[in-house]
Design a protein that fits this description.
single chain, 477 residues, alpha/beta, Rossmann fold, 2 domains, eight-stranded mixed β-sheet, six-stranded parallel β-sheet, disordered C terminus, Digalactosyldiacylglycerol synthase 2, chloroplastic, chloroplast, glycosyltransferase, signal
Length: 477
């Protein structure tokens, strides 16, 4: 293995689906590859045309992986000041309507050749491994890092029989991350505790937001009016993304907030209901379709209100701070990283929310220092990622086992061997269960996803399913 590291970053989503697990890993690979010291591959799901039509907005579809790759590269190149140098590979996937998620099909570790398998970064490791049936990640890669993006426990608790489902999911997430990952990075304390995990925000913001912040600071320093609009919120328009909390607060304190104007931007399943609820208020609360947060339309707003407590780390909050705005958000683990910024105003109760909102509308944002601006950048996020993942050491310097005295070595080896045997047995059990169609279906997997179907094989240039099964049988006998 060369001392030049190879990173393979596996995601659970891809552009043009504008979700955090599509956007943030894309920025991560761009900045990991920026200095040219690492080889980086982005591994993203490929969906059949039928599934693309269900997932991607504005009827955007791709006839081939090459066309999809060109779209992804164009998007990131328009947002960074350098030309990212990384590879893109696709794994076969299906869209689950019930889970509203993209799920892998077959053994996605096969996307990376054994000879370059070094560091695997699993963006949403629990999601990628719920139904994993294939090569053990830790057997193929030297280092497997999981980055936990989503508070799945909070979401399932809102469903029917949510408490029971949450209990099972908590166990399943712990199980698969323990057996398949060396290290877990939780973006915030809002996620469940997992084995071998550390809490660290390893996300940054699109550089364009930082440029807006610099422009606004210059306007304020020149005595110009930098912000001509009041308060707004942007996010996927579903009740669970903070809209219920926000409208409840505005409804309860309409008299105290008299004169307040709030614009809501978003698209989603609950758009019509959110609009109806907003229309019942005496306050001027307007609901608009979703837009890109980088749109110049948002530059002149002064106050970003985000009462959501289901996020892990809210990307739009970071973007608003980068643009120099005042942010009002709840005292919640998902907002812990933002407390260091003077423009982040945290409320503990409803009365504080009202007072902070009124204060924010009457005052000017504090200017960001260079260090605060840097902390929001992807350069800083990449440094935090390397440190949290314990990847700062060169390959040759990575410790294999802890040094111990000769007297304690036999006992240490026995304990280590026992732990490895237990983990191997746990992997075997998971593989056995995930290899049964009836078990997979019982726990929510898309039917017939043990192997890619003929359409996915044609799209990706893979061997047809029957030939793959015969080859696998030949290799294992």
């Amino acid at each position: 293995m060369s001392t030049r590291r190879h990173f393979a970053v596996f995601t659970t989503a891809s552009l043009p689906w504008m979700t955090g697990t599509a956007i943030n890993p894309l920025f991560r690979v761009a900045y990991l590859a920026k200095d040219g010291d690492r080889e980086v591959t982005l591994v993203i799901p490929w969906l059949s045309l039928r599934d693309q039509e269900l997932v991607y907005p504005n009827k955007t579809v791709f006839d081939s992986p090459l066309e999809h790759e060109a779209y992804v590269r164009r998007w990131i190149e328009e947002r960074v000041s350098f030309r990212p140098s990384f590879s893109i590979k696709f794994y076969p996937a299906k869209f689950s309507k019930e889970l509203r998620s993209i799920l892998p099909v077959g053994d996605i570790t096969e996307c990376i050749p054994d000879e370059v398998a070094d560091v695997a970064v699993l963006e949403e490791p629990e999601h990628l491994n719920w139904y994993h049936h294939g090569r053990k990640w830790k057997a193929k890669f030297r280092r497997v890092i999981g980055v936990v993006h989503t508070n799945y426990i909070a979401y399932v608790k809102r469903e029917k029989n949510g408490q029971a489902i949450a209990c099972f999911m908590r166990y399943m997430n712990t199980w698969v991350t323990r057996i398949y990952c060396h290290k877990i990075i939780r973006l915030s304390g809002a996620t469940q505790d997992l084995p071998r995990s550390v809490v660290c925000n390893v996300h940054g913001v699109n550089p364009k937001f930082l440029e807006v912040g610099k422009l606004k600071l210059k306007q304020l320093q020149n005595g110009e009016i930098a912000f001509t609009k009041g308060a707004y919120y942007i996010g996927k328009m579903v009740w669970g993304k903070g809209y219920k909390e926000l409208l409840d607060l505005l409804s309860k304190y309409q008299s105290k907030l008299a004169g307040l104007e709030v614009d809501l931007y978003g698209s989603g399943e609950d758009s019509d209901e959110v609009r109806k609820s907003a229309e019942q208020l005496s306050l001027a609360v307007k609901v608009h379709p979703g837009r890109d947060h980088a749109d110049p339309l948002f530059h002149d707003y002064k106050v970003f209100i985000n009462p959501s407590t289901t996020d892990v780390v809210c990307t739009t909050t970071a973007e608003a701070l980068a643009m120099g705005k005042i942010v009002i958000c709840a005292n919640h683990p998902s907002n812990e990283f933002f407390k260091q910024f003077p423009n982040c105003h945290i409320y503990d109760n409803e009365e504080e929310f009202v007072q902070l909102t009124l204060n924010a509308l009457a005052e000017q944002p504090a200017p960001l220092t260079d260090m605060q601006r840097y902390d929001l950048s992807w350069e800083a996020a990449t440094e935090r990622f390397m440190e949290a993942a314990e990847l700062n050491l060169p390959v040759s310097a990575e410790p294999k086992i802890h040094q111990t005295s000769k007297a304690s070595l036999p006992a240490f080896l026995r304990t280590r061997k026992l732990k490895q045997s237990l983990e191997d047995a746990s992997v075997y059990l998971h593989q056995a269960l995930s290899g049964l169609e009836v078990t997979r279906r019982a726990f929510g997997a898309v039917p017939k996803t043990l192997q890619p179907d003929e359409q996915l094989c044609r799209d990706l240039g893979l061997a047809p399913p029957s030939k793959k099964r015969r080859l696998k049988l030949k290799l294992t006998t």
